[in-house]
Every structure is written in structure tokens, then in C-alpha cells.
Amino acid sequence: AGDQNLFTSLYPTLSQQLPREPMEWRRSYGRAPKMIHLESNFVQFKEELLPKEGNKALLTFPFLHIYWTECCDTELYKTTVKDDITKWQNVLKAHSSVDWLIVVVESDAKKKNKTNILPRTSIVDKIRNDFCNKQSDRCVVLSDPLKDSSRSQESWNAFLTKLRTLLLMSFTKNLGKFEDDMRTLREKRTEPGWSFCEYFMVQEELAFVFEMLQQFEDALVQYDELDALFSQYVVNFGAGGKCL
């Protein structure tokens, strides 16, 4: 969300550098941590993309929402950017989406062309005061990202570390909820109207997720469980029970 032209200018560098460094992925249930590389698909913010109640999909809605701005003008922030961020956050709250990040891009070249600017970091302070409350880490600064300098690279590295951390946190939380919902659905398999075909699609999506993360053993486990469940249904059907 936010300044689409700004994001477009930074996207090639972002998509190239994001998966470069691995992240340690820790999950619950005593599973051993694993090192994974994060690759993300960035899409323009639209309310219709947000998950709805009862949505069992995991791959079709965004996990982390990012607002981009390079505003350094006092009046522009008051009259435009603040209202835009407010509307964005209100939509997220309406859909119970709590995973977000605001990125303020600072450019010395842009500041030189402005006369009515706030002192350095003041826009960031205002955004943190207006929107972040006790989550001041949800507003980060990206300094001169298109410059070839050590300051620019340090800024990129700090931003990428924050982005990877938030992406992994959000993904792990959503994955855990998806697995809980899947288990609940599986436990209803003896109830009238339960469909193995519908359930298959849910657990297969989980397998796709593990495959995307190159966790192939975990992906195979999903198919093994589906095979065992299907075999049991075949046995039940042979004994005069219900199949599928």
C-alpha cells in the first residue's frame, strides 16, 4: 500500500536481496528448527484480497501488509499521507489483520528539492506516535536505498532483517492456525456430509506450502497422512460403511 511508484523503483533490489540470507524457522510441538530462504510475492493492496471468515486457504491471501512512503513534507503528511495510512489501518482492523509494517524512505536528493520539510526523523516520529502506539518497531526507515554507499547498504540490511522476521512470524502464525483448522476438519470425518475430496484439497495446500519452503519431507508427510486416511475410507466402504 502507499506510494506504488516508490515501491516499483525499489522492487528489483528488494526481490533480489530478500531471499539471499537464510532465516531460522522455529515451530511449536518440539519440532527442530530449520534454516529457510524466504521468497515473497508482493501484490498491490486491495481489500478484497484480505481473508474472510471461514476461508480455509493459505496461499491466496497476504500475510504481511506494508505501507510505503517517502513523505518528508509537513503539510503533505497532515493533508494526505496521514489520512491514507488511517484508511489503510482501518481496513486491516476490520479484517482482524494485525501484521503490518510502515516503511519511510528517506532520500537526500528529495529533501533538497523541498523547502517545507520536517527535521530528520520527525516524520518517522509522527507516524510512530499516530499509528504505532507501543509497536514503534512497526515503522522503519530506509535511507537512500538506490545509492551505492555503505550507509545505504546498512539501511537495506537492517530493513531486510526486520522484513524477514515479520514475514516469518506472520507466516508461522497463519500456518499454525491453518493446521489447527485442518485438524478440526479431520476430526469431523465421521459426521454426515463430511467430504474426503474437500478435505484432500485443504491438506494438499499444506503440502504445497512445505514444498515452496523446500521442506520436502514435511510435504511428503501430508500425502502419507492423506493416503492412510483414504485407505481407511476404502476399508470402511468394503465393510459396508460410507466412502468419500
UniProtKB/TrEMBL annotation:
One of its GO terms (cellular component) is TRAPPII protein complex. InterPro entries: TRAPPC10/Trs130, TRAPPC10/Trs130_N. GO terms for biological process: early endosome to Golgi transport; intra-Golgi vesicle-mediated transport. Pfam families: TRAPPC10_1st. Residues 1-240 form the TRAPPC10/Trs130 N-terminal domain. It comes from the Eukaryota. This is Trafficking protein particle complex subunit 10. It comes from Acanthisitta chloris (rifleman).
